[in-house]
Amino acid sequence: MTDHAALLSVAREAVAKATGIIRSMTSFSVAAKGDRDMVTDVDLAVEDAVREFLARETPEIGILGEERGHEGNTDLWWALDPVDGTANFARGIPLCGVSLGLVDGLKSTVAAISLPFLDVTYTAAEGQGAYAGEERLEASKATKLSDAIVSIGDFAVGEGAEVKNRVRMALLAELGGRVQRVRFLGSAAIDLAWVAHGKLDASVILANKPWDTMAGVLLVREAGGVVVDSDGGDHTVRSAATIAVGAGLRDEIVAAIARVGA
Prior knowledge:
This protein is of the alpha+beta class and 262 residues long. It has 2 domains: 4-136, Fructose-1,6-Bisphosphatase, Chain A, domain 1 (2-Layer Sandwich), CATH 3.30.540.10; 145-260, D-Maltodextrin-Binding Protein, domain 2 (3-Layer(aba) Sandwich), CATH 3.40.190.80. It has 7 helices and 15 strands. The protein has helices at residues 4-24, 41-57, 86-90, 161-176, 188-196, 210-222, 250-259, and strands at residues 30-34, 37-40, 62-65, 69-71, 76-84, 97-104, 107-115, 120-125, 130-132, 135-136, 149-152, 181-183, 202-205, 226-228, 242-245. The strands form 3 sheets. The chain has an 8-stranded mixed sheet with strand order 4-3-5-6-7-8-9-10, with helices on both faces. A hairpin with a 2-residue loop joins β6 and β7 (107-115).
């Protein structure tokens, strides 16, 4: 049986090490890695350091990192985004974070997200609740879209982006006319952590890259929220989209997504 408490301690230490690196590297280079996509040497330094730490502490567990790919166990593995929100980070916008989730089969069971410039670390373990530091989190209880602040994930880049972004534009119009406010934060880790924290009532991410989402998905669930795929089915690592929402708005958000054909 997986010792979630012990692995949560490892995850906390891993993101603390990552945070120290991010804060210490006051100058860095930026390189293109695809259409309107970038990587900094901070991303690479953080991923390499965290990989080394996790390989030493949990050699039986695989790891998938955004920058270096998957190594080791494919049934039990860490999902790491060394700097989620790289575009924000590269411009000096403090909305970025380190996201580390433990994926066991199809779902995450341990999570740690550190927001280095907002001085908060979010953590969760399956069945043990979600926390910001020592504060136990509770997802939104809102039941009306007109009361909701909803974040939308980044627009697509790369191959097929034009078609994908037509759907995103339709979704923006659909929600923009119905919710209290729409927000684009530029970091899936923050989107999901803030749904867990009740700062956002929902987050609609029409993608599911495990390094971006798996830690935050567990935070939301452990805070009493729900996370589904775009069709309303239960979210797993194989889902096409990541829709996180307070339970009272689940049906309305899923219906809005269905109306735009996402």
